[in-house]
Amino acid sequence: MAKKKKNKQPAKKRNRGKVIELNRSFLDESVNLEEKQTLKKFHKKYYLPIDTTKILENVKKIDNFSLYLNKIEVYNFENKKNKLPKPFVPENYERIAQNYYKKIEQLNLIRDKLELIADERLIIGLGGASVYETSLTLHHIYGVPYIPGSAIKGSFRSYLIEKRFNNNEKEAIDKDWFKKIFGSEKSQGKVIFFDAFPIGDLKIFKDIINPHYQDYYSDDKNKVYPTDDQSPVPIPFLVVEGKFKFVFGVKENLEIDIKGDKRKVLEFVKENLEKSLKEFGIGAKTAVGYGYFKK
Q1: pLDDT in tens, 245-268
Q2: CB–CB of 195/148 below 8 Å?
Q3: What is each CA distance from 8 to 5, 11, 197, 292, in whole angstroms?
Q4: Whole-number Å distance between alpha carbons of 124 and 145
Q5: 34 or 209, greater pLDDT
Q6: Of the residues 34, 57, 82, the one at which a domain ends
Q7: Are residues 136 and 241 in the same domain?
Q8: What is the pTM of this model?
Q9: Cβ within 8 Å of residue 148, ≥6 positions away
Q10: Same domain, 43 and 103
Q11: Do 90 and 143 contact (CB within 8 A), yes or no?
Q12: What is the pLDDT of residue 26?
């Protein structure tokens, strides 16, 4: 068998873009203003492709809010704090929601829905992974805020355990009707809770957490006391307002029996899920008024 001839032509040198050496030289008076502005944007050494460099120079052109928030980090060198970029509303969020719910209609399911408005402010995913101290749940492809179906199901489950079983989870999971809705270790729940997307009047804006005694909370060794000479340190985070659509369905028209009261499962879910979202709320900081819904 004849050996293949080796390609002796030298490989073309790949253009990796410009290399930015990041150090504290921007404090030096000899560095020109343009170099100072470039160095202020970064704090490590990176190879930046030419296309990436152009994007970073025109951040306002990025229309995917998830990409803008999580991939383009804004760093404040003066305060040594990550600064949240200015929030904006994705222009196509209603079209994204319409396409999502059209796909649900194509499924062979019996469905029902709720359309509710977030009463003032909603926070989903505040403690999630982020380049900042706080986070917001955004769709990883479309970049719009949404409420995961798993969060809706978990919040609704907690509401029923509290209201109907006085927080006795063991008693709840023994009931057949509860198992039909949420499932158990041995069987899958019959009700499917879909993600909830905004369908109107969406707003994304900043709020703050303002801890007044940071030294007291962070220093255990020296026993620092919560005195008024400690400066508050505001922590910004993002909240959402708008109208959301909640869709849930089953493969067959089931009935559940609750103490002799037979009801269709979707009717029960619709009635009590609305109560849950209005009275119990969903997401973070519900104890101080966030995450509640209204008609």
Answers
A1: 999 999 998 999 998 899 999 999
A2: yes
A3: 9, 9, 57, 69
A4: 8
A5: 209
A6: 82
A7: yes
A8: 0.77
A9: 124, 137, 195
A10: no
A11: yes
A12: 41
Residues 50 and 149 in one domain: no
Is 52 within a domain?
Answer: yes
CA distance 146 to 81: 27
Q: List b or e across 122-133, with b for residues whose CB sees 16 or more CB atoms inside 10 angstroms.
A: bbbbbeeebebe
Cα–Cα dist 140/146, whole Å: 10
Tens digit of each residue's pLDDT (9 = 90 or more) over 64-91: 888 878 776 555 444 455 577 778 888 8
d(CA 206, CA 123): 11
pLDDT band for position 230 (cuts 50, 70, 90): confident
Q: How far is CA 82 from CA 62, 69, 70, 134, 241, in A?
A: 19, 11, 12, 10, 24
**For the purposes of burial, counting CB atoms within 10 Å of the CB of 216, is it exposed (0-12), middle (13-18) or buried (19 or more)?**
middle
Task: Please give the tally of structural domains in the chain.
Answer: 2
